[in-house]
Each structure stands twice: as C-alpha cells, then as structure tokens.
Amino acid sequence: MKKLILTILFLNSIVGFSQEKSEVLIKGIVLSEVNGKPLENAYINYKSRYRYSMTNEKGKFEYRYKIRERDSLETIELTALGYENLDTIIRVDNPKEYVFEFVMKPRFGLNREKALADIKNGEINILESSGIAPVFYKSDSKFAKKYNVNFVEYGCEAIAEESLYEYNKTVFEYLDKKYGKKWRKKIRKDIVGLNEENE
After folding, report:
1. How many CA atoms lie within 13 Å of 140's alpha carbon, on the beta-carbon side?
2. How far, in Å, CA of 25 to CA of 46, rounded?
3. What is the pTM of this model?
4. Does residue 160 contact residue 40 with C-beta atoms inside 8 Å?
5. CB-CB contact of 39 with 102 (8 Å)
6. What is the pLDDT of residue 124?
7. Are 134 and 157 in contact (CB under 8 A)?
8. How many Å apart are CA 157 and CA 174, to the nearest integer?
C-alpha cells in the first residue's frame, strides 16, 4: 500500500511538472507615459489564440499560454482607451516566463511636453472632450479673445482623461503666471483639470 501511495505521489508530481513545462507565463505591468501611473483596464490580446487578459487596478496582468505542437511566435497587442496601440512578438515554442513593463503613449501626443511646446509656439489651447455632441458656449469665444486662447474640442475621439488633465494643467499654470488667478472665475467650470486645480 505504501508503494502504491508513493507511486501515485510520484506520478502526480511528474504530471504537475510536465504541465508547468508546457506553458509560457506572460505577465507584467502597463503604465501611462503621461504620468507614469499604472493603466487599469488595458487589454492584452494574444492574437493567434483570440484570447485576452486585462490589467487590474495596479496595471498588472498575467496569462498562462498553453504551448501547442506548432506554436512558435505570438503577437501580443495592447489597447487602452485614449492610447496608441502597442504590440510585440514573443517566442512561445518553449516554456518560459516573460515579465514586461509596457509604457503606452497617449493618442495625439497630448501631455505636458506637448502643452509646453504649443505655448512656446504661441498656441495656447484648452482641451475639451464633450463626447458625441460637443458643447460650446457664447462665453467661450469671449474668454478665448480676452486671454488669447483656443478651445480645442475632441468630441467623441477617445482621449485619455489623464492626457487632457496634464495638458490643461500646464496651460493653467501658464495662464496663472500671465494673468494671475482672475481668469479662473471667467472660464467655464466643466473643463478637464480645472476642478482638480481648484481643490
């Protein structure tokens, strides 16, 4: 009886070991280039398998790729709302563990550096993303003329909220320096980043 139990335990460990050996572990973290923070709900698509994983609130993901007989390469594509897609190719013909740190760029290159470059070029833009029906008020044109700014509406384009925030925050710093805080009382209150700045 003792030999039977030992044989079963031995076979069980061999099966467990061989199962571990027949997979590729793919894990990592996805960060935003805008602020270096983890991106939640980014999709990681394993194209040949039609499978995906998703990042958690800490930007982390993990996927166990079971190796098939004819596997050799796998394309991994990352997508996140408001960011440029990113992809990479990995070998999947042998058991291995991949640990990635992906940094995703915002669409349209919207970040602090872009805002500083625009300001330097005399293009003082305040960015908005109102959705499918852009919202403009009469007071917008009056404000734009007085403070020499442009309101740029992205409508239903997928723009990362943190991109708009970082860009606008930089413009707000410029306006504070040039006009003091008085402009803040005259601008519409639904501009991304304005409420965060006032808190």
Report:
1. 16
2. 12
3. 0.75
4. no
5. no
6. 95
7. no
8. 26
